[in-house]
Records
---
Amino acid sequence: MTLNGWIQIIVYCGIIILLVKPLGNYLTRIFNGERTWLSTALGPLERGLYRLAGTRDQDEHHWTTYTAALLLFNVAGLIVLYMVQRLQDILPFNPAGMAAIPPDLAFNTAASFVTNTNWQSYGGETTMSYLTQMVGLNVQNFVSAATGIAISIALIRAFSRKSARTLGNFWFDLTRSILYILLPICAVGTLVLVWQGVPQNLSPYTVATTLEGAQQTIAQGPVASQMMIKHLGTNGGGFFNANAAHPFENPTALTNLIHMVAILAIGAALTNVFGRMVGDQRQGWAIFAAMGVLFITGVVVCYWAEAAGNPLVHALGIDGGNMEGKEVRFGIALSALFAVITTAASCGAVIAMHDSFMALGGMVPLVNMMLGEIIVGGVGAGLYGIMLFVVVAIFVAGLMVGRTPEYLGKKIEAKEVKMAMLALLILPLLMLGFTAIATVLPAGLAGIANPGPHGFSEILYAYVSAAANNGSAFGGLTANTPWYTVSLGLAMLLGRFFMIVPVMALAGSLVGKKAAPPSAGTFPTHGPLFVGLLIGVIVIMGGLEFFPALALGPIVEHLAMLGGKAF
């Protein structure tokens, strides 16, 4: 580890902290329906979209109506994206003559982008036409991110409103997320990326002759517009197979910084939105602090493991850290930082191959996703994910002191705890269940590239990434097979929507509750004690659920390395 590396990490963390309050203030104004500096230009368009949808911003939804609208909208997106891929060969803007996508891969990709996962079992520049990238994948980058934001805002309203029946209007939340947040930031960000050298065109691929006389095809296309939303919306799908390690996606140190900041900016700011909307910003800062402690811990462990390198290599007289699979332009520090950022959020973008990380370094991205990606998390998904742990932590605190648990004056009763636990348990069920099946089926074992515990980690990482809607991969698993495309697609859909439904049911239960004023016996939820309790609940639950699987994979691989054996 180097001083320069730590300075880069500290500067990045400082930028995120500085963005939390101003961006949180702006987001709060958006979802409270207040005017902003964009209202004059976008207001008529917004109202026109409501008329087209047959709704008004004043029309509010019961939690069941809100959830039904959300699910139907995403089912429609799934069908449209699937058909775009299947008809790709006869649709326009296909200068490279890409063939239609096979049914299993089309299903996997449609499920991936609709769920904000962006897992890719294909190489973008060799598989998807410009039209599929723009009208199919890029559109879902916006709407899937907006869906996550909408759910988090509905849950925040559940805590902030008293004795109400409605959670807001899904179409209002979806539309304003896109019009006033995602589109403006992406428009400016795309221009900056083009300025830095990221392509944005519809030109045919360029064929160049190398110095040796060989022919080289240089892929290009509408790259910059997809890069900005893939990071801002914590989607992660790369235009190119090499993802953010490709020089067209990430040409400079400035673009790398923009990508990293964009990934966590909205998710971090939503904690401030929570504090503002419930009337106590300290509540938002407490949640942000818990996220921050877990994030910094992951960065320290991952950076230490990669900087220390492999002792078996050092024994050969080769000094230095583990540079295998790293982004050589940015070094070990930023490669490790990017890996932690992208798995702390539900963003599958990568600049280094996680498959090449040291065992403990690769375990950090795994743990980030296993915890439900609540360490800032995806846009919206991170906040509603950690609020589930807040409900459980408050319940545990109530048991310890013998009082009915309360949070922000609302009693946390059996129904709320059941809904929170149902949502939290769906992820380990999918992650561990699918991994167990794949490790005993020939079709699952055929995909691994390495023997022993590392091969197990490759399978485990794939299903953890899919169910957590992350989309990153170890890189050593051959996942473009019928077994993996179908099973991973199912894991993505179930991990997204089987978690959303109990979250919305929880919100529906909370919004109707009265809020009691704080008393002398009220457990304070804005101080260090609550932050520590929340972190403890997260770590203990994660440890109980996933430690056996980690012991079979990265932990035993690390111990084997210390004993002189590598995989």
Note: The CA atoms of residues 263 and 534 lie 23 Å apart.
---
Amino acid sequence: MNSFDIQFHNGQFHLFSSKVSYICELHKDAWLLHRYWDPRLTAYHGANCPEPVKRTFAAAADPEEPAFSLEMEPQEFSCPHQGDYRESSLALRRQDGWPAGRFRYQGYEITEGLYAPEDLPHIRPLDGKGAKTLSIRLRDEASGAMLTLRYSVLEDSAAIVRSAEITNEGTGPIWVERAFSALLDMPYDGEELVTFHGTHQKEFQMDRRLIGHGTISFGSTRGASGPQYPPFAALCAPEAAEHSGEVRALQLIYSGNHCVRVERDQYDHLRLTTGIHPEGFSWKLEPGERFQTPEAVLVYSGQGFNGMSQVFHQLYTERLFPRQWAGRTRPILLNSWEMCYFDVSEEKLLPVIREAAALGFELVVLDDGWFGHRNNSKSSLGDWTVNREKFPNGLTPLLDCARENGIQLGIWFESEMISPDSDLMRAHPDWAARFPDDAPLLGRNQLVLDLTRREVQDYVLDTLSGFLRTYPVSYVKWDMNRHMTDPGSASLPPDRTGEFFHRYMLGLYRILHELTARFPEILFENCSSGGGRFDPGMSFYMPQTWCSDNTDALDRQSIQYGASYMFPPSAISAHVSAVPNHQTGRMIPFETRAALASSANMGYELNILDLSPEEREQVREHLALYKEERDLILGGAFYRLRSPFDGNLCAWMLVDRKREKAILYAFAASYDVSCLSAVLKIPYLDQKKLYVERNTGRRFSGEELRYAGLAVRFPQGDFPAIKIVLQAETMS
């Protein structure tokens, strides 16, 4: 067999790469059933298919086969009212008010390459590596709706990419009331569910639970993916851990309202679904129109959660993040926010730029407070003109100073929002999202711009493009600091009001697509009060995300650990901040703060003008060392070794692709007098090589590090960090 392919034989569709197989089957040339999603198979003969058994109360899909009921069959999609009473993935309503959805198989097509969903972020094609896409067509005769299920398999990847498209081939309109991107049915075998939850300043907290009978449902109806429940879920074997065990995971490439549901039914079947959240959603399709769902990425791992993460990391690095930033050096930045908050000015920033350059920083970011008459959060969003009281000469002096000192300048925008106290609101009060007869609710003293409207999108594009041409900064921090409460638009007729949330996302994606295409050399960083919209959809346009406003080096351990399940270090921004920490008041040693930030895209968030000579030298040395290690940190492989969710310790490792150099960081929340040492097993190095520890000169074989582990002892005091650098030698 080829290294990857899609084959159709004896009614079976077999998608496979060198690492995974995905098999579905036609039953009586009508119904599409799921058969297998696990390690690569060279052949499949239906050994896992149970004999059909007629059940009381089960509706027969085929009167000639009374034992065949969709209630018991593993499916690739499901509609309500077809005898399958589990969570459905697709729901349609006809013009006469009746539901539709009795889909039957029509045909298939296998094409080279990847399908790129129109107007949505997606997995990109990759030069030099192949992909194939299977499109299966099914039709509902009563409504004329055509359903196309798409599956893509990628060369040298354990990922399968799924999406769905609904086309109205009938004579009247139909309404899509639910359109999930993927449905997966499998027998329950004791699997546990791993998800993440969080809130502002405490994102990516892991939750692992047993799956009882019934439905577990989580997601977002906030108009953003949100920190509460990111669009990710994993089913794992009970014994699965970081280094071993089976894991099946999915993630949605979408930034708006989403839903993940896990159902264990009375027959011990598991159903996993994900897609756009159905609450408040509907989409009208006139004859000839289509609706495309976001893509869902499915990952199988037989090497535990680190194996799963490696698939996501490689896939997103190669095929999701903006290509112009692949392998490029990311600048070490100094952000003005915790240094100045809203109190920014030319007088304050010029000496900061000079000192930042002298210390070795590569970029200074001017955060909130530079525009309109903005002195707090109560005004000026939408008025993206320079505040002439704070910057009497515009931002040109800052750009000139940065250029003269060999450093770059960045800027902050919150372009999706509008302040009630703004010139834009006074000129266009109808541009704020709202219901027609109610005053919109404020969040952080601001309203949401109605990005469902083309003229509003054009305003944002034209205003920001004009600014970026006038002031050629090299970095943009794109923020979004509230969720939606009034999903209404004067531009939407009554039969399309349920389209607001998704049309908003399509409007945002259009803005980001065009803006990043116009300014490909600008590094755009995603932010939403930190990690409030850290998802693959935003990562399609922006290669890195400020993953939390919480810069506390203890809290950041769990935040960055959790984010790493899906995203590599190159996608995660982390800053060294001042003590006492602005969010928690903790006094954490500089070495620990530096270690956390050095495990990702590193920057600083403190007033460098207040540093003592000793602190100044400490920062300079840290920046210089990070520059030496940056290629490994951002381009190597990241592995978790000890979880902060399980106790007092946290540890991870970064290793280059040739497994010749590794950087290991270990953290303790507090000093434990009874803990003589912690032993960390490291199964990710070359077992045939010797590794020299840089500080002590001690030598260890990769084999003993894998099986015996490495003992580390923390110094006295709370919040310590240990850094261990291992360099490979050739064994004689």
Note: The two ends are 39 Å apart (CA to CA).
---
Amino acid sequence: MSFSGRLTAFLAALCCNAYIVIASTSSSSIWPLPAEVDSSGWPGVIHEGFDITTDSQSPRLHKAIARYRQWIRPSMLEDLTVQDRIANANGTGLDSLYLAVSNHNETLNAATSYAYRLSVEGGKGHVTADTIYGAMYALESLSQVVDDGKLMVEKLRVRDFPRYRHRGFMIDTGRRFFPKQLVLEMLDAMSYFKLNVLHFHLSDYCRFAVESLVFPELTAHSDGFYRQDEIREIVEYAADRGIRVVPEFDFPGHSRGLLPLANRSVTFCSESNVQLHNDLDGRTVATLKALLSEMATLFPDKLFHIGCDETRVTDTCPLVMTRKMEQELQQHLAGLGKTPVGWEEILFSSKAALPGTVINTWKMESASQATAADYQAVASSLPHFYVNYVSTTYDKLWTDIGASVPAKQHSLLLGGEFSMWSDNYCYRLQCFMNGTKPVAWWMYGRGEDKVFRSSVTAMIWPRGIVAAGAFWNFQAGLDAQSQDFLQLYHRQTERLMARGIDSCPVGCKCDELTQCGVPYPRPPPSGP
């Protein structure tokens, strides 16, 4: 039996899971796995006159249609074979696609529906979707069953919706800066796999990465930051792809990036300047509130992440004062109409979490413990979803984030995220610690943006593809170590690279310093 036949038989057996029905070979190429799929018949061509139309006047949807035409409609009809041309003339294949949308509002939020239905029969394609974003996902699914200008089936029916509303990817630009163009490429890749939240970690030990007009000294001497107009461009680019941008400014620990404000009003707990001091005069908190108020205007999403991880109790920073600071910041964000998000320590260590704050679990505590305490949670388990570790193999990412959450608490689990921390690209440990340098320390400088791009994207992709599938529709009966899964994984990798996104190639091993066994070019050492 061929690979596609074996994969079809294997996926069809999953119907007993009552969440997915696969009924043909070609439909198994859609990733993430749809809720329900049924297809039949022989391949046909995409007709020369093929077009996509819609009842929606949404500019965002029309931009998406323009993007997907290039992947659905053949660009070089002269390359069709004689058999293809005969099929074209006989009408076998697809000549049109119509998108019917119930709600044309372009607003994105946690409640946005991405559900859609897609059908192809008799040369006609039809999509019904709750929102323009569901219609975009239908376009993506259809594009995955088109190969070289050919539709891989004659009839296709898909009913699809995500299991989780929050399907995220975190990039850490508070350590090694991610150039704007690289962020835009990450957003493109996310959209191909139906990820809908960019968790933008924008401050840490190495920098504060967003221009502040209120506190311009924050970036006055920075080797990498986003101007406010660039942030607006990123947010709009993401929204055009159905992606929300959730910013994170990490306080009160991981706050060395605020060191430029030390001469103004911000004080720290110790000489290392890594944790903010909640001084009795309230100057530090007042400055943070002013900064958060400014940053909140740049990010329309209701979720706003304030970190609160890995804080330390010292003589100058007792727990009670740290807790008070974290609670004041949460209250301030709530007053700005935002929903605070914090790492798990805000609930389990400082015990500062206020009702309504979302808990981002990552290390010691599980999502089930956060939901048991009646908090909404986003799961980012370090052993499974930290792709900055080479040891996080693709099969570890195929895991059920809700497995330990009781059914009565499941609505509190918003979803999951996978993360790319950039610790190993710091010029020295965490940008301030002495000791052995991280493995890719020499990629820290902006002069190495090109090689950093190659290195970091190969760390992220294609492993992140598996995480996206787990957040959309995890299937316990699908073994990630099976040959069938591996070949499906490779197919998605090839598709990603065909769309111009750098990735670790099929059959290769990649780490920070090498790709397919070849070291990245390194500049010669400077000095005598």
Note: Confidence is low (pLDDT under 50) at residues 1-27.
---
Amino acid sequence: MISKDYKQNKKQVLALYDKYVNARETAGKKIDDSIREQAERIRNEIFNLMILGEAKSGKSTFINAYLGEEVVPMDVRQCTSAIIKIHRGNKFELVAKSAAGGKTVITGYEEIRDFLKNHAAISDKYRNIPITTINNELLIKYKGKKIPGQIMSSFLEEEAKDNIFNMNIDEYNKLIREYVAENAANWGKIITEIDIIYPLPEEMQGITIIDSPGVGAGGNVGRIAEDYISHANAIIFVKSLSGQALESSSFMNFLRNNCTNRKKESLFLVLTGKSNLQGSEFASLREQAIEMYKNDIKPEKIICVDSKIQLFLNKCREFGTEEKIDEFFDKLDEAGDDFDPASKRWLKSKGDIAKFEESMEELSNFNSVQVAIEKFARIANYLQLIEFLENLEKECIRYRGIYSETLKVAEENVDDPVALEDRIREKENEIREVYTKITQGIMEIYKKYTDNINGEGVIMNEAQKKQEEYEEQLENFRQLPESQITDTTFCSMKKMTLDAIDDTKDFRREMANRVIEEFNQKLIQYTDDPSKIPAEAYTPNFTESDFDSIDDDARKKTSGYDKVEHGLTFKSVERVPYHHLKKHVKLVANSIHKRLNDDIIPKMTDNVVNYVTKCRETYYEKLTEHKVELEAEYQKLLEDRDSNEKRRANVEELKDKVATVEMQLKGIIGLKEELKNYVGE
């Protein structure tokens, strides 16, 4: 289970926020909207942990061992194309959604297991064909309609790579056709998503485990799973240490084709079945895995575990006493189900439960998974907490400055009307200065970034450079000789295109940081985080399916048949297929070029301009709010001038406010420094 440390820290951070809110409301001060919104995001945070793996990799066993409960029945075979989501609730309940939109609710362990066996599991006959891909790409996509012969032929040719059990290709294709024929009419009953609610421990509140169908040899996960992967906070890919090659194509292809550079940061490789190997063999395989994937995954994210050992340990912890554990192992031995690595450790412990647990934990190594998830996948969450505390700290420092300055003046000017008059004139000057920033300063910065009449707008110039970089990459593909063009070429073009989409998002963030920095330097210190400025979400209008459509269209335009005559007296004509790869690449490159130049780059530019416009509006609003605060302080000085007694009372009130802010700052700074330990700062 994920450590509850983050939950405790989150609770402390929100408690400090609640104190801040109470103090501001007591003082009659408005809570900044961006602070309030950030607090709500932290309060409602959901952690999505995606579990992927090849067929027969032991995903279900790993999930149950990780959760500490047998939530997913392990004798139920892999679900066809269903995503399984597991989260905490008050009772054990299953909610299944079908392709046609139907919903079924099941309660009770046996009832849930029966439902999975009868409605969602793969039958033995079709265990060795890519059911997930067939369901998504043929049955659900065509909704029971007849699938064109050309589509079926292309599908069979493409899915030959997923014949991971090396069946006779004719038998393999025959099974696919039979499965399609048997299930086409019932496409709407295919289970696509399963929600499992289970009374897990409290520390699992807000955490969702997402179990995906098996990953194909080509690294494909299915259209439904792709969306979940893109929103996952962390991804665990489960592989078996025994019975499967470390260099199997499914994981490598998942890395190369379906896992963008940014997503690799949240990816973990878990190798299961640790106890099945001898010490030297295990160490050799781990080193081999580290060397094999070193360019994509850090060594500390490659973790070897034994799920079955952890399951036995969890079961023994339920028994709790030496007598019941002895009875448990005796029954297993009588039934012929003894698990030697676990029973040996129990015998060796001689009834010492603590010693047994320590030995089993060392062998299962599940603590390493927990530590890795906490260290890497939670870093983003901790950074969010730290950033929020820094914003609270800035707010408190700002209010401390306001109160301290006002207190100083109030103390100095009790019974001193001359000094108070000087302060009134100073406040008038401050109001005039803020007014100048509102009417002139904001517009100067805005024009610098958005004024393109003379070709000097920063945004347009930087976007043009990006556009030229993409064109240069596309030209390299266009210039490839046909002899160097392979299927990898099109995968590379696809990955280059999706990484270019990520670059456009980075461009928005980079420009946002520059704009915020300049606004802060020349106007006011509002925020260091560009995400605090509200702006519409920017999602580039280009997806993997768009690329596949471009590739298919280009293939059709560059493939066909030529008529070739044979013989002299008795002539015959033969249709010979052709496929011009170089033209194919050029057509794909030209299509990407058009999308980048006509759609993605202009939208990226428009979005950044819109963002800068939002910045202008937001800073106008903040400066105006500051001006209103100054005017209120000015009015307060005028009122205090009329009553010396009122000034004395105000001194005491301000002292209390300063003391309150100081106490809040101490708590915020202390917790912030403590949280930095979690991210290695």
Note: The chain has two domains: 46-306+365-377, 416-642.
